[in-house]
Amino acid sequence: MRAVVIAPVLKARGKADPTVITRSDEARLEEAVGLARAIDLTIVHSALVPVAQPKPGTLLGTGKIEEIKAALDEHNAGLVIVDHPLTPVQQRNLEKEWNAKVIDRTGLILEIFGRRASTKEGTLQVELAHLNYQRGRLVRSWTHLERQRGGAGFMGGPGETQIEADRRLLQDKIVKLERELEQVRRTRQLHRSKRKKVPHPIVALVGYTNAGKSTLFNRITGAGVLAEDMLFATLDPTLRRMKLPQGRTVILSDTVGFISDLPTHLVAAFRATLEEVLEADLILHVRDMSDPDNGAQSSDVLRILADLGIDEKDGAERILEVWNKIDRLEPEAREALVNKAATQPNVIAVSAISGEGVDALLDEINKRLSGVLVDRDVIVPITQLQLLPWIYDHSIVDAREDLEDGNVRLELRLTETEAAELDRRLGIGGKPVREDWER
To answer: Binding positions for Mg(2+) (predicted)?
Structure first.
């Protein structure tokens, strides 16, 4: 379908907050065009539209409406995407003025999510968000009922009975979906409790959409998650168990990409998925450093994390910034960025495409999750060899010797907490077993 994309630029009122990083109007328009192309629309015209005083009925002024009408006629386009929230009345009035379909930012994001969802959980989440969005716009769906006229004893406007019936139908669907998603949430909680019994640390990837999370996920785990240069190329969360180079096993979680002005009900619908982030031991905030607006994108991500309950103080300990796509920078800019990252304790510069910096990232992940390691030499009796898988999952095994009597000697490095747990499992009361390896 041929489409026109417009980004209304509302005149700012009062002084802007200097601490809030905002993106340029041009970047907003470019992102809106990218969102539209993500669902295979042909963009024939795009423009920034200044709005001095928003009109309650149409948002835009009469002159701008006529300009866009002329662009639609010139390019034979039947769809207008408005990169701004529209009320149901504004959407309906603009459709009448332009004689074309109108979609606002929320509707466009929902359309993309609907196409990307591939699992039952993802489909449920998108459907719930879409129904909540659609509920306030039912009047648009029933214009054909205006031909009906109420007889004696009927109050209200034409078609009102049918609209109210449809609202009740939608509400019933919403309640049903919320129950199903609650079951999803309980199932996820059950899976988490099972993982905690064999506790592997969880590392969650978060970031603005198209920051390169899925490419980095594939680079680290060798998984085949879809990764394209496209907004919201992946939607459903993916978890993989992986071993760090030092031997520690972790679970890596790839989540849905964030975006500015993400609809509130969409965040609520995806809370079951985003709970993986809340449970994570370490959060990797992946940033596209080749994007001029990466600062504003970072602010949007941190704002959504704060909405989820990860505050700034907590984030400083749990969030590691990954400055991605350094391969796209000019040599001088790339070198300056890498040097800057090296001076900051919570930053690692990488290229998920070339692999540069990934080894340093894995080392930092291991360091963050392991804490202070202690050396242990232990003998695992033949009667307790079932502990070996646990030991290999929770420690770094530097040496192993299979003894003639069936026992196994291990030279280990592990955290103090895991050392205490190993002593408990071996039944040695927390006292380390030291042996002379030459004997």
So the answer is: 214, 234
Return the SS3 of 384: helix
Q: What is the rounded radius of gyration, in angstroms, for the C-alpha atoms of the chain?
A: 28
* Strands of 408-415's sheet in order across: 373-380, 408-415, 396-402
439-to-207, 238, 434, 435, 436 alpha-carbon distances in Å: 54, 49, 12, 8, 5
**Annotation-wise, does 232 bind a ligand?**
yes
Torsion of CA 263, 264, 268, 271, to 10 degrees: 70
94-99, long-range: CB < 8 A, 24+ apart: 94/58, 94/59, 94/60, 94/65, 95/140, 97/58, 97/65, 97/69, 98/65, 98/68, 98/69, 98/72, 99/72
- Is 99 a known ligand-binding residue? no
Answer with the residue of higher pLDDT: 150 or 78: 78
Residues near 69 by Cβ (< 8 Å), separated by ≥ 6?
97, 98
- Taking each continuous run of H as one helix and of E as one strand, the counts in the chain are 16, 13
- Going by C-alpha positions, the residue among 118, 366, 358 that lies closest to residue 238 is 118
Q: Please state which of the ranges 180-184, 412-416, 426-430 shows the lowest mean pLDDT.
A: 426-430
211 annotated as a binding-site residue: yes
CA dist 188 and 177 (Å) reads 16
**Does 255 appear as a known binding residue?**
yes
> Does 208 carry a binding-site annotation?
yes
- Residue 213, annotated as binding a ligand: yes
Provide DSSP, 174-187: HHHHHHHHHHHHHH
C-beta neighbour count of 430 within 10 angstroms: 11
Q: What is the pTM of this model?
A: 0.72
Token digits of residue 203: 């590392």
Q: pLDDT (tens digit, 9 = 90+) per residue, 326-356? A: 999 999 999 999 999 999 988 999 999 999 9
Phi-psi label, residue 148: left if phi above 0, alpha if psi -120 to 50, beta otherwise: beta
Q: What is the pLDDT of residue 303?
A: 84
Question: Which of these, 131, 158, 161, lies nearest to 144 by C-alpha position?
Answer: 158
What is residue 316's predicted lDDT score, i.e. its pLDDT? 65
What are the distances in angstroms from CA 118 to CA 75, 115, 187, 238, 376?
Answer: 34, 8, 18, 12, 46
Residue owning tokens 């060899």: 385
Is 325 marked as binding a ligand? Answer: yes
What is the mean predicted confidence (pLDDT) over 99-110? 89
Return the higher-pLDDT residue of 189 and 44.
44
